[in-house]
Records
---
Amino acid sequence: MTETLQGVGVSHGVAIGQVRHMGTAVLEPEAKQIPTEDAAREQARAKRAVDAVAADLQARGNLAGGEAQAVLEAQALMALDPELMADVERRIAVGSSAERAVYDAFAAYRALLAAAGDYLAGRVADLDDVRNRIVARLMGVPMPGVPDSDEPYVLIARDLAPADTALLDPTLVLGFVTEEGGPTSHSAILARALGVPAVVAMPGATAMPEGVVVAVDGSSGAVIVDPSTETQERLRREAAERKAALAASTGPGRTSDGHLIPLLANIGGPVDVPAAVKAGAEGVGLFRTEFLFLDDSKKAPSEDAQVEAYRAVLEAFPEGRVVVRVLDAGADKPLDFLTPADEPNPALGVRGLRSLLEHPEVLRTQLRALARAAEGLPVHLEVMAPMVADRQDAKAFADACREAGLQAKFGAMVEIPSAALRARSILREVEFLSLGTNDLAQYTFAADRQVGAVARLQDPWQPALLDLVALSAEAARAEGKSCGVCGEAASDPVLACVLTGLGVTSLSMGAASIPYVRAKLAKVTLAQCERAAAAARAADSAAEARAAANQVLSGE
């Protein structure tokens, strides 16, 4: 019987295929005492397993590259946490086996995270995945994961660990649906990078029977269970028409009446550049530099190593615009040499620019490396600071850029509500703003981007979030400066039109989304975008805002 279920669409496209379920790990080792004389051997076993899992996560990251690399390297650091390892060794010393000691040590740490508030609670899924991998290795059993299949399928899971999502084979995995997660979760971001249609936060997803045919619409979030032959043919026809329209849409981003809105790419490093160039990106709107620093959590990369990596990206966009975000460490991206180990809530502590101002030598080295990397290139380099809270932060960053001799525009990311509310003040110190809508939503609504239960508050269509975007854009216009969006909100073609109507001056997104946004903008006028923006802001919920904007843009 045909049934339509509704989740949150996070990656464009339509997938039709049979359901295959993600294997789930039930890996609780037997609780048994070991002889005292075996403790040293068990401790060595545990250490080897931890090192092997960390190396595997690192290798998966190197293979996947880009944003996936940063996510998996963060998980590898989690596996190697010295406090966790010390707890494992202590438990073995009093009689636990290696696998039971790992299980219990991670369970204790898990309980601390789960009780520490929304932000840290969101790390529980990643911690569980690391624990399962270590225990599976110690028990000598395969790690449950992506199912084996010779035929393409739609993957169903409660949630997907980054290590699984990063290496999905798009020729076999037509799309995926998860019961948990949110529009800005790691898996959603990686799905967009892979170009795999995906729906998250869909209640009852795991109850779908194995082998049933489903149609997944990664744009609307609809999942049709057991669609009729006619419905399947219609969806395939519409998908083919969209694909043809995308192929026909080329050139710079602009509305149908000629209003230019540059479409830029979000990248994590040189490995992401080819996809951005192929998609017709007009430059880079967010170059996340964390990937280089996560290679070794104990020390920062050398200035020469940074120069090499930055220049590889800058050379790919001659005459183009490349916006580099300096290191954003802390929260879910801890670095031993930079991040405090004892913060009760890292998301609200010493993160981003705050970390760099406490370690000026790290910031100074990165800014010098960027200056050297841009020497002799015609690229338009812009450098911005993450987690700017006020004018004092903006001034400190701009002063550091000048002291490093950086010949570039200096900007501030708007990720904290205070920055949007006081945007005009901040713009007296810097030359542009860039809205990170993922974190801005997280801090506006006190809703962790990794927690599926609060996914509705992470929806970038929330009118309160649109109000903050409008405040920032109005401030930039008043100061004669630019204000772009580099959060995942820009990857939604309809929302991209609304953002244009709110007055933002550029849109940056994963490369796979650029053709969709370009094609949509080309069908509407600036006046339509402005009317859609006004209608969305007048709504009282994200769903109402989306519906109101769609109505305006469709001419109804």
Note: The longest strand covers residues 14-21.
---
Amino acid sequence: MLDAVPPLRAHAGAQDGERVIKLAVLAVGGQGGGVLADWITDVAERNGYVAQSTSVAGVAQRTGATIYYVEMARDTGRLPVFALSPSQGDVDILIAAELMEAGRAIIRGFVTPERTTLIASSHRIAAVSEKIEPGDGRASSSKVHATAEAASKRFIAFDMEKIAADNGSMISASLLGALAGSGALPFTRESYEQAIGAGGRGVKASLAAFGAAFDRARGTAAPAPRPAEPAIVESALGAGQVSGPQNLLQGWQALAARIDLLPVAVRDMALRGLRKVVDYQDIAYGRDYLDRLDKAVALDGPIQGYGLSIAAAKHLANALCYDDMIRVADLKTRSTRDKRVRREVGVKDGSILQVTEYFHPRIEEFCGTLPAGLGSYIEDRPKLAAFLDRRINHGRRIRTDSFAGFAALWFIGGLRRWRRSLLRHKVEIAHLDGWYALALDHVPQDYALAVEILNCRRLIKGYSDTHVRAQSKFDRVLSALDMVKGRTDAADWIRRLREMALKDEKGDMLDGALKTVATLGPDKIG
């Protein structure tokens, strides 16, 4: 008969040598959560611990992280009883591979102020719920930081993704370095490094990322330099590096000199807008942008904080840089995009990357890339437009790693030199001029309302069907202008309608709000 060995269980009065340490890792696909859990298990076993690692898979990327769960206890000869998944209020160390995963761990009750060391990378990956928001749907990072500080016994957070990328490794290596540097586990640095070395692949890069994160968690690394405050640009001529042919550089310097003549409060936004517009088209387009901006600056002043001019600088640039087939093709054939895709996919130098681009042009996009007269001729004849649409309006897959596919997109992107003569440009500029004139006409009577009219340009974005829906919302919001102008709260009403339109994809909330506006009396305060 075999003698039964009583199992080791965690309990409140257990000695340190008998205590079960409970650690959870939250990571999504591609972040190396499984590798990290294996490393932690290896480190524990190298130090005379018995460890168990399990995982509970999430749904898909950004709809649910996989939870890797490790329990460990010193090997005392008794068989430990380990759980298969974490429980609320019963986690000693929680590692989150990005900031919002830390927030979700707190919501699920895995982090407690009297017990849990919370280690999180401070970088962000937008969740699906954030991406589908028509406006700015990003959750507040500062709120997560504040909540994490209050909810945990100790909170360690810095950009571990950047540390990994800078060292050519995966974030799992820098997460392990942060864990080791935190001192939350009773193991030496050398044992962590030995576990990494045992993997045999990418050891040098992983050790470099581990070491950088270890020093940062210990507080021995030099803090990252703080970015310069963007509120004031001393000189546009000295901002950033610009290269190119001499004649174009002279043109850019002339435009940058005009930025320096603007009020200080406006310069930063104006310089950002100018860079975007010139990159989108050319130097002459940048000159047009500044000419339009000057109209708002002439009506503005320091008493209002130049709010009108700042809004004009931002939204004029976005309006001038509308998305069309030319823009999409141009961006997809830039060398910077190829480098970004290779970096994100993890393609090694010398390896072949096959890229398939998906296009589904409608007759409207086709006509928009034609000379204004020809495009209007087709659109004005529904039968001809329908005939062409049946032959154009279907999905296409273009391999940009092939010569033919790349050349086709490169040719379309090259049409931007003729963009000003095309139908889409004629339509967009007419719409821009009408919106801008409407805003500036309201400045003498209601400055705040004029600013809100400019801000309504936020509603227009996207390409193809998305652009059509966005412009419809824009038109519906401004349809309330005649009903609210002259009221003391007119600007506030336009702002409310715009925010509803940004949050409401179908537009039901906006329709209800417009009905409310229609019932307002002239003297009624909203």
Note: Residues 232 and 264 are 6 Å apart (CA to CA).
---
Amino acid sequence: MNFKEFETPEKLRGGYYTPHDLATFLVRWIEKEAPSRVLEPSCGDGVFLDALGSRNFAEPVLGFELDEIEAKKAKDRAASVGLSDVNIQASDFLGWALKAMETKSERFDAVIGNPPFIRYQYLPPLFQDRAQAIFEKLGCKFTKHTNAWVSFILASFELLRPGGRLAMVVPAEIIHVMHAQSLRSYLGENARRLVVVDPEELWFEGTLQGAVLLMAEKKRRKSDYAEGLGIYPVRGRDFLSLDPEDVFNGTAPINGKTVEGKWTRALLAPSSRDLLDELIEAKVARRFDDIAQVDVGIVTGANKFFLVQDEIVSRFKLQKWAHPMFGRSEHCPGVVYDEDQHQANAATGKPTNFIWFQDASVEKTAAGRRYIQQGENENLHTRYKCRIRKVWYSVPSVYSTEVGMLKRSHDTPRLILNKIGAYTTDTAYRIRAKEGTADQLVYGFLNGLTALSAELEGRHYGGGVLELVPSEIEKLLLPPPSKVKPRVEELDKAVRTMPMDAVLSLQTKRVLGDMGLSKRDQSELLSGWSRLRNRRHRVSSEAA
């Protein structure tokens, strides 16, 4: 977790401003409907107002910018480009929007802008309450993992007149993060058509945050047919010379599962989506939850105290409380964690020991008292997870499983056969097989089908690392374990020595090919995985 005091002022204020050419493209789209009133809920320094002025826009514009200095910049910029009917309010948009939604006194033909990217926990309490109230007002499920931009889009879209248009620069994570699911569902239900312009490159310098253009047209009547979502991939800036209306109307939309859940499915070719549905229908693909059980790893509350190198164990004489553990990708270069791997980790100074004080009896020993005092000198007993325990240094829910899985991965997730009963921290998951053996589960997990479903179900942030939480793991697609002939040692060697693309190709042939899946379908799955993996890594499809 990132702490507020370590973040930049720009990040805390959500102040990453839109390039002028992108703002102009979105303005060109909304003006196709000749809007008589426009809302800009997060003006910043006024780049969208500048774009409106460059188009000789003459209708009323209402804007909001909480920062008074930036609000003045926006007003000055609007005046400099000849916008005569602009009202910029240096106040909170969400508070104003709640009142407008309650009284139904304000409606707009178009909304433009770049909503602030601010985590919920970084918002002042009043703004947190307002963000949550927007969700509740619209009957949307709220989570405290959300970000300010989600509430901004919800409120903005609600304030559109029927048939109105919303054109915004939004985080690329709108496609896949769980905290945006309420927004995706709301837009899917209330928009006639949705289009996301999805770039291969990063548009904002100085940040790893990917961004997309969201173009959404509101239904004229509730009963109108929702065409669904289309994603328009772009490379470079050449698309900006196109007519945005052609981009909006010419992008093929898809509906159903895509709009109901994450939008990642829309990034796939239709043939890949159809194949996945066929495999599920034919029961070639099973859900992880039917095959295995997943649970979080051990939550220590102070990993540096409880997860230590051999040198710490020796210095503090902690041998009787030290147990083998793993929790990072560097601990597990293959798919097997055994004594040899454990000793290799220890020899290179990695933290391979979990210190487990089961109860307060440890304080009867000099070594135990000394180490606990060391932790209290560092105020570890005041940390939330530690202080809520009856005995702060006694970690609960300590058990190991025969299979583990790291929370994050670079290319694709893999299961780890835990041969020595090592413990895992909350950077990994504990897995139990419901069907078949642990060997079958570990071996069968690494294939093109499962790798592709991990891209569809997971999420990623700056840097392109894939992350899965238990509810997403439970939805992963796996081949039935009973049909898997495991060769775990061979797979372990392959993962350690071969590129993951080659490993997946080999495993897809061995696991899915042996089950009767055609070479064409194997290739389709691998192509879909590569397409989504490369997008996550910001690798050009031409370079891949």
Note: Residues 519-537 form the longest helix (19 residues).
---
Amino acid sequence: MPDTPRSTYRVQVRPGFDLDATAELADYLSALGVTHLYTAPLLTATPGSPHGYDVVDPRAVNPELGGEAGRRRLVRALRAAGLGLVVDIVPNHAGVARPEANPAWWDVLRRGRDSAYAHWFDIDWDRGRLLLPVLADAPDALDDLKLVDGELRYHEHRFPVADGTGDGTPRQVHDRQHYELVNWRRGDAELTYRRFFAVSDLAGLRVEDAAVFDATHAEILRWVDAGDVDGIRVDHPDGLRDPAGYLARLRAAAPESWLVVEKILEYGEDLPDWPVDGTTGYDALAAVSGLFVDPDAEPDFTALDGRLTGRHTSWQDLTHGTKLEAATRLLAAELTRLAAFVPELPREQVRAALAELAACFPVYRGYPPEGARHLAAARSEAGRRRPDLTGVLDAVTARLRDPDHELAARFPQLTGAVMAKGVEDTAYYRWSRFVALNEVGGSPAHFGVPPAELHRFATARQVRWPASMTTLSTHDTKRGEDVRARLAVLSEIPGRWAERVTDWMSRAPLADPALAHLLWQTAVGAWPVERDRLHGYAEKAAREASVSTSWADPDPAFEHEMHALVDRMYDDPELHAQITAFADEITPAGWSNSLGQKLVQLTMPGVPDTYQGTELWENSLVDPDNRRPVDFAVRRKTLARLDAGWRPAVAADGAAKLLVVSRTLRLRRDRPELFAGYRPVPAHGPAGAHAVAFDRGGAVAVATRLPLRLARSGGWRDTTLSLPVHECTDLFTGRVYSGSELLLDDLLSTYPVALLAPTDSVEAAA
């Protein structure tokens, strides 16, 4: 097995699609051309967990997935098919929704500070009992508490009873425990343990403690030592107290493993100089998807957004507001804990200063040496917005600049959570100017990526992070890659879109026009999408936006109106026909974008990941929609037809995408030397701006961008591409080309993409 994968395929291993079901994919994945299976977390998670990120016992494989025996069967199946394994690990937090399922948390609840596991969790014991936000929002909620089999029970919740405290009424027993059950609404404001973002069911772990690291990583590292694991994906390193120290310890424990981190980089931000191979690919996603968005459309969409919503708000001001909301509302408990580290100043002023700095922080969190620059930028902007806090801001910032101060160690954990909750989970649902850009790792204010910018990005990756992952879809993306690709078409027809959506919104109004614009874009991007899926998306989007309704306080009247709008899309014959006609109008160009962005992602520097099912057309929306079961039988049959010589039309149920994926991955697997460099290949002629091409060291990728504008301007005409070899073969059509100049009208006559390789290398691989 190579130390670095040449490609990966992500599978959401879960109850209902367990390790044995995953093992059955080994032959298909090998035929597809991937070199490594990349799994969701495999350790024991909360019973019934659909994702595995709520690990409750790091000592064993999840029995609901097949346990250790299932893991061994999977490894055997992969090795027999010539595949490696990359596993996802979750060092930042543990699942505590079901205390009885988490032995360490159960013991902490039972024994308090005296528990052998008390140091595992980031608990502020000095503030009193450990608060657990599980009670209903009612003054007499504790009256429902019961004593059963020596445990306290609150409806379906179970809690331990400390030794010698079990006599008396349930309320009396409760009052003697190391924990206190409180109203669920108090969670965001008063909790005494660090959480994952604002999720009270996920308690932060202290993996900076060597003993905690060893205990929580022993099983994973046992697999590594046994040669069963070739790579590790680290979930959410920004949540850790000391990510650099943690990654150094992990690298020392797994020196030969491919190691990537789920580090979200803001536009223009570089990955810190960590002992890792790169990120999980959101930076690549933003660059590649933006390539197919027309930057010239930005003024039109800005004007449309203003007309539809009746206001003009900058992205900077919007995100400042949503981040400040996240800091002061969702993460109020964390803010209070940090403010306590500046006891000599008024508590509320310190809280306000910290919240303002977090809201103004330009990246998820700062790391040396760039962290000082980011803190300075945050201080400057915070001072501009809150001149009344100048003295407190100066005092707080001085402590944040002191690496030995506890506040400096903990504040970065807050800024990352504020960015994630305030931007990804709120602003992305409020800012509906052009939602194709509202993606994890993206920058909605940065409208499109010109080819020259893509080439600069890829060249830098080849030099600095050649083994970093690339991706277009994950379980965390806000919409699937093909939905984004179709939405990108709207940037080529801003006037047409403005006409359509303005008419639809006037005929079917919604009290929240920004949300309505998001829903109409989502509908045409995913159409035809099942009604129940669009209803589910609408509800999640509206509650995440927290404008007209929210998770904490749903507004039944507004949500009824919103669901009625979704129903009209299906039940109003004229409206349904218009949506269908418009989606049909933009779909062919969307297919072109899908193939183009997929080819660029699979061939650019880095290790390309294919998210489960996305080798065919796929119209997933946000989680949990993107975790739906995948029909692998259809994909097997389609791949077999392609291998038998079938060359499908672009519109043939996504088979053309599977052709692109399989042929590209096979070439990367079989001829890695053709992907050892990076050089832009310019197109010459009247349509040169519509081609993006690059030479990876023998393999040349060619993709079409802005296909509608290309068609309107007369097509490729006399546009040519200069090739580095005199004879090459297009792996998608099998056509052989001779000479150093190729007419793009000829090369791209069958598909809007081409992958060229020296003919002798193609024959050798075949």
Note: The first strand starts at residue 8 and ends at 11.
